[in-house]
């Protein structure tokens, strides 16, 4: 045994922790392929992480906690859950600027119409018809994107002081009340724009943002009014690519998504209209960096707005911090035929924050982190691989827990022994459910 190993055991014994810190990846799930990858990673990480004895003297309720991707909030009103966001002195949220991204997505679609005024109206009836795949009617990001597209295209209507984000079902005759027909000038033409259909893509088991459901929906829509569909828009790439592959690629109907997953970016070469990068490379970094800083007891801005000793630093064109909401938001970038070559690998770490931290100054710590839906395209194909690249750089030994996307208890059941961990990163199924997690940390 090397010196480091002996030392760590000695420390553990002194702290009275015995073997608690070692091999605790047994709590990792075996439920899915993603989880398997996670378990392998956890296993290899724990070998290098012999020093990762949890801080036995810190109560679970005082350990660093970062919420990510699903901001604690009321799923009906969107109001932030300030109790959850201020759970303890080391609690943060990491996501992205949903409104800025939503505006960009709407603008990207509007710009596409202007640039293709001559060809966009496929059946020449003077109406630009679009269909919209909605991810989750109770999720801030999804609501913002629906609003962003409706605003940019002029189909938005106000309801209770905000843009209505409800799905319309089908609206081929233009009589739906949650949207309106718009008039849009493009080139020397004036078109009517109509949201022909929109639906929350939720499967029968309750999983939202469901790609397969979106693929089925485009099948149904296209078979009854396919010649009227000129544009397909989706709240994310998972659903967008499912519709593209099922129908629009073949019909050459521009399809727009969100997330800049690698497969969607590659599809731009085959006619996918465009997507938005929510800078997941910055978000994944911030998710783990906030924990690292809290564990190190340093200023939270270290390696974020202020360079750390390894040279990691972010500039304010890629993120902003809202102190009041204790939230870090990455900024979005539109990815279209003009620039997609720069975005082909969504899992590559962001260069300015890719420097390895010195393990002697930032010793390995154990983190519990869940992905609410192991089958979600964005989270599994983009976000988790990024986290797995950063965890090594930040000397964090992370157990990745993959949820089923439907039930909170499927995940909270696997937070049975929080004392085995130094810090937590939580991705909820439903944004109202923060207390299901914090109550476990309070015990
Ligand atoms: C992503 C979606 C994803 C969702 C999961 C969103 O930010 O854009 O693709 O399904 O998060 O919570």
Query: What is the number of domains?
Result: 3
Q: Helix count, per DSSP?
A: 12
* Rounded Rg: 23 Å
- Average residue-wise pLDDT: 90
Multimeric state: single chain
- Enumerate the spans where pLDDT stays under 50 for 5 or more consecutive residues: 1-52
Biggest sheet: strands, sense, closure? 7 strands, mixed
Bound molecules: beta-D-glucopyranose
SSE-based structural type: alpha/beta
- For the terminal residues, how far apart are their CA atoms? 37 Å
Q: How many β strands by DSSP? A: 17
Secondary structure layout:
Blueprint (H helix, E strand, L loop, with lengths): L2 H12 L18 H16 L16 E4 L13 H4 L5 E6 L1 H18 L11 E8 L5 H14 L4 E2 L2 E2 L5 E2 L11 E5 L2 E12 L10 H15 L3 E6 L2 H15 L3 E2 L5 H6 L7 E3 L2 H17 L22 E4 L4 E4 L2 E3 L29 E7 L5 H17 L2 E7 L5 H5 L10 E4 L7 H9 L1
Parallel strand pairs: 1-2, 1-17, 2-13, 3-8, 3-9, 9-10, 15-16, 15-17
Antiparallel strand pairs: 4-5, 6-8, 7-8, 11-14, 12-13
Helix pairs in contact: 4-5, 6-7, 9-10
The chain binds beta-D-glucopyranose.
Can you walk me through this structure?
The protein has 443 residues and is an alpha/beta fold. It has three domains: 3-52; 60-97 and 279-442, no CATH class; 99-277, Response regulator (Rossmann fold), CATH 3.40.50. 33% of the residues lie in helices and 18% in strands. The chain has helices at residues 3-14, 33-48, 82-85, 98-115, 140-153, 211-225, 237-251, 262-267, 280-296, 377-393, 408-412, 434-442, and strands at residues 65-68, 91-96, 127-134, 158-159, 162-163, 169-170, 182-186, 189-200, 229-234, 255-256, 275-277, 319-322, 327-330, 333-335, 365-371, 396-402, 423-426. Strands 12-13-2-1-17-15-16 form a seven-stranded mixed β-sheet. Strands 3, 6, 7, 8, 9 and 10 form a six-stranded mixed β-sheet that branches. A hairpin with a 4-residue loop joins strand 12 (319-322) and strand 13. Helix 4 (98-115) runs parallel beside helix 5 (140-153), helix 6 (211-225) runs parallel beside helix 7 (237-251) and helix 9 (280-296) crosses helix 10. The longest helix has 18 residues, at 98-115. The radius of gyration is 23 Å and the shape is elongated. Mean pLDDT is 90; it is low at 1-52.
């Amino acid at each position: 045994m090397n010196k480091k190993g002996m030392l760590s055991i000695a420390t553990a014994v002194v702290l009275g922790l015995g073997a608690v810190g070692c091999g605790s990846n047994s709590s990792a799930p075996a439920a899915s392929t993603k989880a398997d990858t996670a378990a392998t990673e956890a296993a290899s990480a724990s070998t290098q992480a012999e020093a990762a004895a949890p801080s036995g003297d810190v109560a679970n309720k005082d350990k660093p906690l970062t919420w990510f991707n699903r901001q604690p909030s009321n799923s009906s009103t969107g109001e932030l859950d300030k109790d959850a966001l201020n759970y303890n002195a080391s609690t943060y949220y990491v996501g992205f600027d949903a409104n800025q991204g939503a505006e960009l997505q709407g603008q990207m679609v509007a710009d596409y119409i202007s640039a293709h005024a001559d060809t966009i109206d496929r059946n020449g009836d003077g109406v630009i018809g679009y269909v919209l795949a909605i991810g989750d009617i109770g999720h801030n990001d999804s609501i913002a994107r629906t609003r962003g597209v409706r605003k940019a295209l002029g189909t938005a209507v106000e309801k209770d002081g905000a843009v209505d984000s409800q799905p319309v079902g089908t609206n081929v005759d233009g009589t739906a009340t949650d949207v309106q027909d718009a008039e849009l000038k493009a080139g020397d033409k004036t078109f009517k724009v109509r949201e022909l259909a929109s639906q929350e893509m939720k499967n029968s088991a309750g999983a939202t943002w469901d790609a397969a459901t979106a693929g089925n929906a485009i099948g149904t829509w296209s078979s009854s009014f396919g010649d009227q569909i000129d544009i397909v828009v989706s709240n994310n790439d998972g659903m967008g690519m499912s519709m593209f592959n099922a129908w629009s690629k073949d019909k050459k109907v521009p399809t727009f998504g969100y997330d800049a997953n690698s497969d969607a970016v590659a599809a731009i070469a085959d006619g996918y209209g465009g997507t938005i990068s929510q800078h997941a490379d910055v978000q994944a970094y911030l998710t783990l960096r906030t924990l690292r800083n809290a564990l190190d007891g340093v200023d939270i801005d270290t390696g974020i707005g202020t360079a750390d000793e390894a040279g990691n630093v972010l500039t304010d064109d890629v993120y902003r911090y809202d102190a009041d909401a204790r939230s870090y938001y990455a900024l979005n970038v539109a990815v279209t035929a003009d620039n997609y070559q720069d975005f082909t690998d969504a899992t590559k770490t962001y260069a300015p924050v890719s420097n390895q931290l010195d393990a002697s100054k930032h010793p390995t710590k154990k983190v519990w982190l869940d992905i609410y839906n192991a089958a979600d395209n964005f989270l599994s194909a983009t976000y988790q691989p990024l986290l797995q690249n950063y965890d090594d750089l930040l000397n964090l030994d992370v157990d990745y827990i993959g949820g089923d996307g439907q039930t909170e208890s499927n995940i909270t059941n696997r937070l049975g022994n929080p004392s085995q961990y130094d810090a937590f990163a939580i991705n909820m199924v439903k944004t109202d459910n923060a207390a299901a997690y914090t109550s476990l940390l309070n015990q």
